[in-house]
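Suppose a classmate hands you a notebook page containing two proteins, each written out with its sequence and a corresponding row of structure tokens. How would you begin to make sense of it? This section walks through that situation. The first entry is reproduced here exactly as it would appear on such a page.
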Amino acid sequence: MENSVRPIFTRRNFLKTSAASSLALATPGWFLSRSTALAQATGDAKSVCVTDPMSLVNPEFRPALEAWIKKSGGFQDLDATVLKKDREQLKQYLKDHPHQPNPGVKELFIPRPSGAPKVRVLLMGDSPGASKPAVVHIHGGGYVLGTPDSDVPALQNLSKDHDCVVVTVDYRLAPETPFPGSLEDNYAALRWLYTNAKELGVDTSRIAIKGESAGGGHAAALAIAARDRGEIPICLQVLIYPMLDDRTGSSRQVSPCIGHYAWTPQDNRFGWTALLGVPAGSANVPKNSVPARVANLAGLAPAFIGVGSIDLFSAEDLEYAKRLLEAGVSTEFNLVPGAYHGFDLVAPEVSLVRQFNTDWNDALRRAFQK
């Protein structure tokens, strides 16, 4: 399955350190709990959840998490200085770990309308004359970090497992490019795939979109744009612990029992503020920039949403799934007990992770078979 070999979790720069996918961070300390900060954010410093957040972690996930924490240094809040450091470290890592050749990865620069900069994409599995399903993939990184290059091994597996074409997008990052720059990059890649389907060997009735974390938020926004523009049908949106609501941890307090590991309320405020160009949780944000704030979800593509129960995004993802169902959108929701943000990358061999990966792959397979 895809996640068993992923070398990097782009938001936190997880690096693969062994064939068994044991992981560490390029910047020490990203994965430590911030009990004091969370207590201040929630106004509940006496909460047992804050006092002992490890007690919330499913026993299956604890060994990998505790091993990483033991190995790591101190926590660094995401800010402009840390962002610059992380980007530099990720760039160096990718330079030291180039792509593997099978299946072949093509780097392309596709045009955007109105003379905007071309969009870099990586293409896998294309087969002229065939009629394959396809996935447009959007990488994670809190809207401010990451590159599609980090996901290539996982996407090569995805292409092989589903015999599908994969396009992953090197969208422009915030804060240098605020919304809607990244959305237009992602949409340009989707439209390019659709309009060049014959040359790529793509069945235009079987195009899915997929993303993890901020990439899941981007994928949700892309599904909304595809519905509104009415040009390209989407057969499924696969949203893996998607980042959907800027109000989480800003204008809306979060439970002290979530968001202790990997992505915290202060990180969420930084990422969303960078994307929106206004403070996270503001009364007015750019139209359709925040999927959770879109009033009408009717007519969207069917969805698979998966998230850990102690992930900062668990409540907002559950609410989004509920609203999709109420809008008549076929939705599968997978809540993994005691799992933190990025659980599938930290502990890929755990039985709950294997089942989680099976579930979203089965959802994708069913969508491709229709």
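The notebook's second entry, a different protein, reads as follows.
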Amino acid sequence: MSATDAINNILRGQDAEVTATTVTTPLDPLDPSLSTDKPTPDTPKFESKRRLTQKGTTEILRYPVAEIHDTTDYLQIKVVRYKTIPVNSGEENKIVGAPGSRRNSNKEESLATIFLPIPSAIQDRNSVSYQSSNINAITGAAVGGIQNVMQAGGDLLTSPQAALENIKSTFMNAAGSTINAAGGESRIIDLITKSLASQAVAVFGGNVSVDQLLARGEGIVFNPNMELLFNGPSLRSFAFSFQMTPRSQTESDAVKSIIRTFKSNMAPQVTTEGSGSLFLKTPNVFELTYKQGKDPHSFLHQFKQCFLENVSVNYTGAGTYATYGDGTPVSIIMNLQFKEIEPIYDIDYSSTEPGPLANPDRAFKPQGVGY
């Protein structure tokens, strides 16, 4: 064996001794004291992740403790105080909120911020309400005539004589239009007769409408002129389910605090005014945001401010009662039901409309699918 081979064997022996003396018991990955400055020769250096923080937040909670950091996708839930319409709008005695005034605000200081993993089933549903409306030609002509008569009496106080003449003329025109819409005087008389007949038989328990009399006698019915009309917007609801299995004392404390935070902030607040039982204050508001690290999610939908309507917690998430030594259940399922405070409007998808969007603190920044 050459001198070079002998030196190499000695060096390999020294490397083996160093490796054997530096291997230690694996560290708990959830231990916040985990050091990344002293890697062992056998282990590559661990790239630490910066923990998420929230400026102006009284309390920051997260689950899982180690897996949510500044490079992961997660659901951020901020708890903020409810602002009444006058306070939120900045106008005293105002009781009607402006559209778009209940958007999330990153400038709002939160009472608590909770970081949770994005649930396995997430979805949004935007809906508006419509209802069908019926009106026959005679009713339509009569309504239009009545509106014309009312408009003709607009000068009744300033010029009574002229207004009365105008009303008389308009009324005659309205009556003529209604008769023409019905098909002439004979048809009007026939319909009045059938209407009186249907009311008369109702006295004896009969239930016959004018439409039924027309259908039976002449095989015709009123044209309903049916049309679907916009009825109003709807408020969106969101349901989330989180299964939590604490793996350390740190996570056990975090889970307990998260559940307590949701329950306490959804509860109505007792006031000291009067006898102390006269009024209740509105619970706190929740601002939900899907996040990618520090930034809002680039695709998923956004939320407006929400109230938490329901919290249900199943402390036997594994199907049987089992706890750790300190009483913490082994598996917990937490279900949350949120509902947005205001509907979604078209201006929530545009940054050029006037109103609340003129305020840079509330300006909508187009991103992803929007609301």
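A careful reader of the second entry would note: Residues 131-230 form one domain.
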